[in-house]
Amino acid sequence: MSTDDHIRKRRVAAELETSVDEAANLAKKLGLTPYPVNYWIVDYDEMNELIAYGGFQQRYPHWRWGMAYDRQQKQGQFLGGKAFEIVNNDNPAHAFLQESNELADQKAVITHVEAHADFFANNDWFGLFAGGAAPGAADSEDGQRRLSNPEAAAMLGRHAETIEEYMQDPEIDRAEVEKWIDHVLCLEDNIDQHQPYAPVDGEDRPDEADLEEIADQLGDLELSEEVRRQVFTEEWLDAQSEDDEPITFPEEPQKDVLAFLQTHGMQYDADGEKAVEMADWQSDVLEMLRREAYYFAPQKMTKVMNEGWASYWESVMMAGEQFASADEFVLYADHMSKVLGSGGLNPYKLGLELWTYLENSENRREVVERLLRVEDVTWRNFHDVIDFERVQDLIAPDSAVTDVPASLDDLDPDDPRVDADALARARDGEIDVETYPWKVLTEAGMAERHYSLVKPQYRGFVSRISQSELERISRYMFDDARYESVADALADVDYSRGWDRMREVRESHNDVTFLDEFLTQEFVDEHDYFTYEYTHSSGNFRATSTAAEDVKKKLMLQFTNFGKPTITVADGNYRNRNELLLTHQYNGVVLDLEQATETLQRVFELWGRPVNLLTIDKEFDEHDVEVARRRDQEPEPEAVGKRLRYDGEEVTIQEVDWSEVEHLDADDIDYDTKPEEWLS
User: Fold this and answer.
1) Within 13 Å and on the Cβ side, how many CA atoms surround 83?
2) pLDDT class of 354 with cuts at 50, 70, 90
3) Cα 474–477–481 angle (5° rounding)?
4) How far is it, in rounded angstroms, from Cα 358 to Cα 530?
5) Is the peptide bond before 405 cis (omega within 30 degrees of 0)?
6) Phi, psi of 655 (to 5 degrees)
7) Are residues 87 and 111 in the same domain?
8) Where, by residue number, does the polypeptide cross the bilayer (predicted)?
9) What is the pTM of this model?
């Protein structure tokens, strides 16, 4: 970096120092408990490099990073894309700000990053990688959740240096290392992301004794002695027993395909046309990439939640607390509209809408539970006897917390909504309360100040509650205290309930469980979600359903197993031939057989012997399709079991008896649409 570049970046950093400090302070006032964040000022090219590297400054040598950099650069050059921020999950977290962005953009990024750092620190799925000591596993003595430490930057740096050393080793062909990485990356999502990361070391690999049982069956294969001596050691062959029972392992299907290959896999020696033990560097690289897959898994599992969470709190801070000044607000609004308005399945927009709906629903439940305990109010007559305009007036926050600084002299330092120390300093002129009114409030005061149900866009949310929801709430109300009037009932509404519930959900959920629990029919109707599918009768796509269950299933399929096919290891000694058998857990979406065959060829390089894959395909009879088209109906496909096999030379696809694949069929889901076409 030149001296001029260094001076320029230091100047930008100095200009942002106050914004960084105050955003962190505001985040804590709102009840967030983020990792500390280190901010770095970078230029345009450096930002593109960081995005290509997944948010880190050092990664192992590989062509994928150059490809990602080129794509990112062209997106900005030709498609008008703009890089706002990138932040990584680490303790402390590291965030990168592009020096050319406007101050309004920088403030939006900083507030967004603080919320991301809170999600990283408090979501249990991120805690899995840090040895299971996840936040939420236990609380500290002061009641705060413990923060895990992924040490990601250090880990990725070590991996980069180790792989670079292998590539520079004169005894190792650099191209072979890169090709080996290609093989492993083809399977990087085939881990068990629901379990904590656990390393597979050399001691877990099978030794001669572990392979003894498999060798018991060599006689059944009728192999020539020459072949037997080529493939197996003398000691192993001499140790064979008389047991004729075929050996099958693992005992249960194993989802972590990479771990299985690390433990039991071999490399294929093309010259010798046989499987041989992996070289130490191959086993080491495989385990490093597997570990990185586990590190990045939580980010893939919580994309909607995480981006929605960050967008929500960014909005509260930038708009609700006017962190964007008056002359910055229009630019910030343009910034937010671009983020939320991008096409396709937008995790920012969907996540923000779901978090907002969750907050409103919980706040509404608080109000409704109180109203249902008013004398003569029942779930049956609720809409007839409740004056919702009056309800809105009664739940409106106290002007003492909403009108700061005008109410500064009227605030009571003993009020739990007021930060007494900050109030005293503000009255002495030590705090710029015009710019930072939130500093004199506590988290309780902030919750009341930003109470969602009184915002103009949500004023009708209480009155829109359905009869079925009223009945459900009434049935499960255990507090039988009664109020004489609506005013009494709403006199002490818990303004923090929505935020408290949001924080609970943030701790334990991932995208699949988040969608499953909170994507309701009310939400689908409010936001006009629907499903559509390709129809053979028309030859194009048609809207098919606005039912929440249908929308939910399609969205959940998009996020289950990172949106990738779920593949498990069924047998490492298939048909007693040392072949690998993988199974595809069929969820209604058939495999792309061309991609599946290419993947099998990669797996072969990590197994060293023939590889098989069982799956279910759907086939349509051409006559049935033509008849259905004339009748404007959909033809019924026939589910067919298929086994793909690659032996090192060719791929064969063979139809198998239904009994071999029946256990793979999830018959409650049946969609024809491709994943990228599920939702627009």
Assistant:
1) 29
2) very high
3) 110
4) 20
5) yes
6) -75, 140
7) yes
8) none
9) 0.89
